[in-house]
Amino acid sequence: MNSLLRKEYRIYHTASRDSFNALIFEKARLLKQANLLEWSYRELCRIETNARISDELSYEKALNSFLRNDFGNSYNQLLSIPDSVRIGTKQYLFLWLLTLSELDKWEECKTIMNRMIKAGKISEEEIVSLQTTVKYKSPGTALKLSSYLPGLGEIYAGNIGKGLTSFIIHAGLIWFAYEQYVAAFYITGTFAGVYPLYRFYNGGRNLSYKLALQYNEAQDWKLRKQYQTIIRKLFE
């Protein structure tokens, strides 16, 4: 904390714009090291931009945003850096590829990685085998299928176990309610059969919707990890 106060004291008393910018950079990096990322980003925004430091400033803002999981802002900051600098500078390129992978921009990421095959750290087959699209499950379709036949939506969403369990529970409740009504136990049939059936039916529809979303997130995560594993191999 004392070092940050000393930095701020020097910043306040400096008359040189270059010294001001350099001190702000140092303070922002100290804050980043202390994991105070939001404060670090605010300090970077204080810097008086000029052509000489604009690329470095954009990179620092992009890195800060990436560490805060603000991948959209990281992308925009890196995009402001000229292509020749962004692609030609190792640390910029590394962050650029990671940001593209986090935003699921697989095609653009793969195109850049294809140019790096000559580095010899990965094979052409590793790049060629990477997918650029993911086959998603429609949450709306999963919900509709569970509306038509309980359990079917869960199976469509990739969870056969939950689907079969849902079907068995619904079938059991229908059978139980039917037996109670046949025996003229209407109250028991309603509160121990029909009412739970209604709750399970709506719960199953909602579950199938969530399972489809989870399936899609898992597929994105799996492909993202494949890309990031190769990206890290390229820069080892």
Description:
This protein is mainly α and 236 residues long. The chain folds into two domains: 2-130, Alpha Horseshoe (Serine Threonine Protein Phosphatase 5, Tetratricopeptide repeat); 139-223. The protein is 76% helix and 0% strand. The chain has helices at 2-13, 17-33, 37-44, 54-67, 71-79, 83-88, 90-102, 106-114, 124-128, 139-148, 152-156, 160-182, 186-234. Helix 4 (54-67) runs antiparallel to helix 5. It starts with a helix and ends with a helix.
- What is the count of distinct domains? 2
Number of helix segments? 13
- Major beta-sheet overview: none
| Helix and strand element order | HHHHHHHHHHHHH
CATH level 1 class label of the largest domain: Mainly Alpha
- Calculate the terminal CA-CA distance, rounded to whole Å: 34 Å
How much is the average pLDDT? 87
CATH-defined topology of the largest domain: Serine Threonine Protein Phosphatase 5, Tetratricopeptide repeat
Q: Would you report the number of β strands?
A: 0
- The CATH architecture category of the largest domain equals Alpha Horseshoe
Oligomer: single chain
- Bin the helical content: over 70%
**What fraction of the residues are assigned to beta strands by DSSP?**
under 5%
Spatial shape: elongated
What key phrases describe this protein's structure?
236 residues, 2 domains, 13 helices, Serine Threonine Protein Phosphatase 5, Tetratricopeptide repeat, 0% strand, mainly alpha
How would you concisely characterize the structure shown here?
This protein is 76% helix and 0% strand. By secondary structure, it is mainly α.
